[in-house]
Design a protein that fits this description.
Organism: Streptomyces spongiae
Function: Plays a role in the regulation of phosphate uptake.
Family: Belongs to the PhoU family.
Radius of gyration: 19 Å
Strand content: under 5%
Subunit structure: Homodimer.
Largest sheet: none
Number of strands: 0
CATH class: Mainly Alpha
Structural class: mainly alpha
Distance between the termini: 39 Å
InterPro entries: PhoU, PhoU-like_sf, PhoU_dom
Number of domains: 1
CATH superfamily: Phosphate transport system protein phou homolog 2, domain 2
CATH architecture: Up-down Bundle
């Protein structure tokens, strides 16, 4: 009975990794859709979010059933409760990727992003994808040092977001109010996506150590260290 219980805990962990991989892919594809005004790709991202939602709902039901049946304590209880919170972070990340794709669909056949901001939005999208890839790796390895690095990596997203905002308030802005609103929303979507990746990593730190990530000092390495993101 206990073996089946721990297999179920492992299965919940596997689903979290799958969710992280799906939403990481989604933000990458949504970025391509918004920059290339690719309606078919945007629709694909929007429709694919259903799988993330289904995984989250299924995980939530199984976790609640485990709490009711097994009444876990100590580390096992921490695993179940933290997994519920991480699944919510990942589900919201999928929604944010979907928002980017929906904006691409809304503006089609026009482009939502002016040509002079393509590089910044592309960089934000790539960084968001790398951060989520790193969060997925943390979920697999339970590497506390790697988890703690994500908050440092997120500083790069904050810098890009500020750069984007500087373009919007520049007197030379010539793209109109509607485009300014679109770009503002996009910047917020990417920033929040990155925040959710950091939140997942912080929850892994708590899961492993029982301590909050803000109370532990990381060994800092750059986000570019993620291979194959």
């Amino acid at each position: 009975m206990r073996d089946a219980y721990h297999e179920e805990l492992d299965s919940i962990g596997d689903d979290l990794v799958e969710m992280a991989r799906l939403v990481g892919s989604a933000i990458g594809r949504a970025t391509t859709a918004i920059l290339d005004s690719d309606l078919k790709l945007a629709e694909n991202v929007i429709e694919a979010d259903t799988k993330v939602d289904d995984l989250q709902h299924n995980l939530e039901a199984r976790a609640i059933a485990l709490l009711a049946r097994q009444q876990p304590v100590a580390t096992d209880l921490r695993i179940v409760v933290t997994s519920l919170r991480m699944s919510a972070d990942l589900e919201r990340s999928g929604d944010l990727a979907q928002h980017v794709a929906k904006l691409a669909r809304l503006r089609f056949p026009e482009r939502a992003v002016p040509r002079d901001l393509h590089a910044t939005i592309l960089e934000m999208g790539q960084l968001a994808q790398r951060l989520m890839a790193k969060a997925a790796e943390v979920l697999i390895t339970k590497d506390v040092d790697l988890a703690l690095q994500l908050e440092q990596d997120d500083d790069e997203m904050d810098l890009l977001h500020r750069t984007l905002f500087q373009h919007l308030i520049d007197d030379r802005w010539k793209h109109g109010i509607e485009t300014a609103v679109d770009v503002t929303l996009l910047g917020r979507y990417y920033e929040r996506f990155a925040d959710h990746a950091v939140s997942v990593a912080k929850r892994v730190v708590y899961l492993v150590t029982g301590e909050h990530a803000d109370d532990i000092q990381p060994e800092i390495q750059p986000v570019g260290g993620v291979e194959g993101a």
